[in-house]
Write a structure and sequence with these properties.
This protein is an alpha/beta fold. 44% of the residues lie in helices and 20% in strands. The strands form three sheets. It has a six-stranded mixed sheet with strand order 2-1-3-10-4-11, sandwiched between helices.
């Protein structure tokens, strides 16, 4: 009888295991997952995930869509067809406070902003006083960070600088290359693109060498007496109907893909350039080498995000939708 009971229990256990495996193998896949992001470092892991088939076991198709400006980003966030989106953190806070049902999953970009200049002697933002600076994305990053830092030094954007606003970082890059401006505040990989382009022929004939001037992350730490990193961008969950296990799986794969990009900058450069025509593999690889990229969950990043959002709120409350986002903004 004892042997019979043992065999019966063994048989039941084996049947349970086989049944569980069969259920997992036959679980219905999603028809499609849509990932969206800008031509910036925050999108690199998304592209790696698509190219490597990281989520192929949970979705029949995984698609990556590029947004080129904040208006396109907001349209994707509201179209009801995008599952996960990469964006500046303040834009996600703004959308959340205006009623968009999203949650911030992580912050993965902590440092991609640089002043690029023809003058190698300019070392701080104060040194650019009186200079004309090309500035992309008026009212969004990097304009927000620039204004926050100069105001904490008693400077005024309108009185102490000549800001030339343009639509995108690539527009600012083109102004530099064509010698229409001498200084620009750029996010990676546009900064690396500008440096690469002015080191090659025939552009070299019409544009002197450019220099990495102010690292805005270091300036952030110096001026505000904080760690030299800024919670600039991350990933938000837009499709709140997705099963929790798929969201967790996405988070795990995004973290893996972020690490892969850091360890394989050249290969990552080729993957990204394949999806975004305006970027070159070499510039993307250069940008990875000088950027602060780290997957940090929204919950873990909450203190730094709150400081950043509060800074923006004190200056212009509308930048984050009029108030600090409540706890529902942070996943889980």
């Amino acid at each position: 009888m004892k042997r019979f009971c043992i065999r019966l229990l063994h048989g039941i256990s084996l049947l349970f295991i086989l049944t569980s495996q069969a259920s997992a193998d036959t679980a219905e896949k999603l028809d499609k997952l849509v990932l969206a992001g800008p031509f910036a470092a925050v999108s690199n892991p998304l592209i790696r995930m698509v190219e490597s088939g990281a989520l192929s076991d949970v979705a029949e198709q995984v698609e990556f869509k590029v947004w080129q400006n904040p208006d396109q980003m907001r349209a994707l966030a509201l179209n009801g067809e995008t599952d996960f989106i990469a964006s500046p953190t303040n834009v996600m806070a703004n959308l959340y406070n205006r009623g968009v049902d999203l949650q911030l999953l992580n912050v993965s970009v902590w440092g991609v902003l640089w002043m690029i200049s023809r003058d190698p002697e300019l070392k701080t933002l104060r040194d650019f006083r009186g200079k004309e600076i090309a500035m992309p994305f008026r009212g969004d990053m990097p304009d927000l960070v620039f204004n926050a830092l100069i105001e904490h030094q008693g400077l005024d954007a309108k009185e102490d600088f000549s800001l030339r606003y343009v639509a995108t970082p690539l527009d600012a890059m083109q102004l530099l290359i064509m010698r229409r401006v001498d200084h620009a505040l750029l996010a990676e990989p546009a900064a690396s693109m500008a440096l690469r382009n002015t080191q090659s022929m025939p552009v070299k004939l019409i544009a002197p060498d450019l220099h990495r001037s102010v690292d805005l992350q270091q300036e952030w730490g110096r001026v505000l007496k904080r760690e030299a990193r800024i919670p600039q961008a991350g990933i938000a969950l837009l499709n709140r109907q997705l099963p929790p296990e798929i969201v967790e799986r996405f988070m795990q794969e995004y973290e893996k893909a972020t690490q892969w990009c850091l360890e394989n900058p050249s290969a990552a450069g080729h993957l990204v350039a394949k999806h975004i025509d305006m970027l070159t593999p070499e510039a993307v690889a250069d940008s990875i080498a000088v950027s602060q990229l780290m997957h940090v969950s929204a919950d873990e990043a909450k203190e730094e995000l709150t400081f950043f959002f509060d800074l923006l709120h004190q200056r212009t409350p509308a930048l984050i939708g009029g108030k600090l986002p409540d706890s529902g903004f942070y996943y889980p």
